[in-house]
């Protein structure tokens, strides 16, 4: 895979092991709760297991914003999208722009829909997915139908 330019600020960088950059994102307890509904930070082992799973079950990218890696996004082979933006870069519409590109990538792959799972308390992510056109289909499940 090669980098994918989203716009003048955002580029998807294909995943490569970089725990020194990524682990701090998963040390923030708010992010850990948003992602996994846990109240403890990721260990290096947990981070490595997560990235091994994501990178072998889909297209996994780091999100580069203005030259800085700020999160990750994966379009899984099972049509699920997973995204994390570190706390310092949330609420800058980065996630929205990334998900719109993921929808394009899913369409190129011939997928007819993608799903996103978010916890009921994560209203920030829920609002973002709904505003893009995802439909809530369960307590934690959102689906985007690709036309």
Write the layout of secondary structure elements.
Layout: E1 4-5, E2 10-14, H1 19-22, H2 29-36, H3 44-56, E3 58-65, E4 68-76, E5 81-85, H4 94-108, E6 113-117, H5 123-132, E7 135-136, E8 141-145
Antiparallel strand pairs: 1-2, 2-3, 3-4, 4-5, 6-8, 7-8
How does this structure look, described?
This protein is 34% helix and 28% strand. The chain contains five helices and eight strands. Strand 7 and strand 8 form a beta hairpin. The chain is globular, with a radius of gyration of 14 Å. The two termini are 25 Å apart.
Question: What's the average pLDDT?
Answer: 96
The largest β sheet comes out as: 5 strands, antiparallel
* Strand order across the largest sheet: 1-2-3-4-5
> Which band does the percent of strand residues land in?
25-35%
Low-confidence stretches: none
Helix and strand succession? EEHHHEEEHEHEE
Structural descriptors:
147 residues; alpha+beta; five-stranded antiparallel β-sheet; 8 strands; 34% helix
């Amino acid at each position: 895979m090669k980098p994918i330019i989203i716009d003048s600020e955002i580029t998807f960088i294909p995943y490569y092991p970089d725990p020194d950059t990524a682990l701090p994102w998963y040390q923030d307890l708010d992010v850990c709760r948003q992602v996994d509904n846990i109240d403890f930070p990721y260990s290096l082992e947990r981070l490595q297991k997560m990235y091994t799973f994501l990178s072998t079950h889909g297209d996994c990218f780091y999100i580069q914003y203005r030259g800085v890696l700020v999160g990750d996004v994966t379009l899984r082979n099972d049509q699920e999208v997973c995204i994390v933006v570190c706390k310092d870069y949330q609420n800058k519409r980065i996630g929205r722009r990334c998900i719109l590109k993921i929808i394009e990538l899913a369409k190129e792959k011939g997928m007819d829909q993608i799903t996103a799972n978010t916890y009921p308390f994560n209203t920030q992510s829920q609002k973002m997915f709904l505003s893009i056109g995802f439909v809530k289909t369960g307590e934690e499940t959102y689906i985007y139908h690709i036309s």
